[in-house]
Amino acid sequence: MSGPHAPVLLAEVIEALSPKPGDVVIDATFGAGGYTRAILATGAEVIGLDRDPSVRPHADAVANDFPGKFQLVRTPFSGLSEAFAGTGKPRLDGAVFDIGVSSMQLDQGERGFSFMRDGPLDMRMSSEGESAADIVNGWDHGPLAHILKQYGDERQSGRIATAILRRRASQPFTRTLDLAEVVEKALGGRRGAPTHPATRTFQALRIAVNDELGELTAGLEAAEATLSPGGRLAVVTFHSLEDRIVKAFLTERSGNSPGGSRHAPALIETRKPSFTLQFKGAREAGEAELAANPRARSARLRAAVRTEAPAWKAAA
To answer: Any known ligand binding at 192?
Structure first.
């Protein structure tokens, strides 16, 4: 698969979706179109979703290669239901999500996602709304430390937040490498660490800027509400926060939650499973893919099939 972004677990995703001629599949995170091209090659149609305006050249190339089989809708995947309704298609046979930032975005220093490339401290996937610079220059110590800990699993979140507030008092942050340097110094340098000290901070800021966890939950609910009976859902995640959300959602919706919900056990008991799991647990990349694409190291795939039961959100 050529292009700037190699889709991870591609064979496993296609197996989970099982697309065939006549099917309609949503690629909820179009990116550079890796999954989309593989799905289109089976004869299925694809509706691509992406809130990043920079994907347009990739979408145009796909549309040119597969005329009449592909369309792109610029929307976050929380807008999946509305995007599908706007196509006028009678049924949705599959949906795939590839959660998180793409290597394509990381490679573009001007997008501000990377602590390894100098660029404006931005991190907005849609180029709209609050940027990472707005957060580090404007948030109080408590909320800033909270997101570093919650979204980045950063144990030294308080120390980093203190260093950020101290520095911004004299000079606001505007560049990625500037912030990365301050974080590195706050943590005492690299000291031979296998990962850059700013990794967790940049992850946390990116998740906060783009409301990635809220978008993921909304996207899963939208897929549940929109997939036709027998429709297949495949979700690829890259860190434990995302994977826990997907696991909890599919475990609950497939009726496998131990003891039901402690908040509303009676309601849970009246709901029929809206999904059946395709396999237990999560699938991971094999040795060959890991050797070819180190990004696949943390990837996890979970997949399920939509039942005929009503969507749980609609029944709430």
So the answer is: no
In a domain, 274, yes or no: yes
> What tokens were used for 154?
């950063």
User: Contact 108/54 with Cβ under 8 angstroms?
Assistant: yes
Residue with tokens 């298609």: 89
Structural domain range at position 273: 10-104+212-315
Ligand-binding annotation for 50, yes or no, is yes
Is 34 known to sit in a ligand binding site? yes
Is the pLDDT at 257 greater than 60? The verdict is yes
pLDDT digits (tens, 9 = 90+) for 3-32: 445 789 999 999 999 999 999 999 999 989
Task: Give φ, ψ of 301 to 5 degrees.
Answer: -110, 130
Say if residue 113 carries a ligand binding annotation: no
Please give the pLDDT value at position 269. Answer: 55
Task: Determine the straight-line distance between the first and last CA of the chain, rounded to whole angstroms.
Answer: 42
- 132 inside domain: yes
Tally the domains of the chain. Answer: 2
